[in-house]
Amino acid sequence: MPARSFRIAEPSSIQDFLDYVKRTGAKSKPLAGGTDLLHMLKQRALGKRTEATQLVDLNYLPELKHMKMTEEGFAIGAMTSLSELEESSVVKDLYPILGTALSTLATPLIRNMATVGGNICQDFWCWYYRAEGNAFDCLRKGGKTCPAISQGEGEHEWNYSIFGGIDGCVAVSPSDLAGPLAVLGAQIVLMTDAGVKQLPVIEFIKDFVVRKIDAPWLLTGLLVPRPLPNSTSAFTRFSFRRAIDFAVVSASVQLCFDKQTCIKARLILGGVYPTPQRCARAERLLEGNVISEDMVQNAAEASLEEASPLPKNSHKLQISRGVLKRAIFEALKGR
Hints:
single chain, alpha+beta, Enolase-like, domain 1
């Protein structure tokens, strides 16, 4: 199915981008690598209310493409490609969890085109939301129902939440990069009409990606804090194929130690909720203790205490336990 015709704007500055989006409204979409947006346009999957007629090309804003260490941490421009970030010596030396996650994303060709900002802002891979020709007028398009769970008969085995939804939508965040960034305490850097704003990754995805705030904004970059002393981290995932496929479930872990005692734990599951899902109860079980195999098992169980799977995706509970345990053990091996 051919895409509807659209215009491309070439902003000269970030403020020019914001002014243009303010004038043209919801019909304008930022164009970064295009690996997701152009596919949706070709499928005509966005619907009449949300389909773009104007693309604003961010490739004309060189200030969005950079990587540098600062006193605050590792600053990454939103237009940095996934492969550039993966090959960064800073990532290899200081943030190996990012390198592991990046190496599992899509294919090398896609990573050459796709951007860091685009991956975090990537739209949901819900079969109904992305149906060709806007076949389903779902909640995210302004409809009144979620076909994935309507009357309990929708298809929701894999790309759907086991912790409930946000505003009725139960599709999960497809960004495998968001979990490792969240576990590292990264901040999203935004430019709005009110100026520069920083938000934690999970809060940003909830407010700006899931709920799609109408006011003009642009993700300009990320700031990843310097690694904590005596810390170790790991990323694991389960998918049907090692390449191309999105993770059914992923786990990101950071552990900090004082000798043999875990003094801080950050555990995040991906693919189980519309945002990365922090496992606070499991974290508390590990903190203040010497981590044993039984404790890892208990933490995996605690991570799912608040889960409420849909009728057809309870199998993701077992997958989540296994992926999280594997990530914790991988982190322990890296001490």
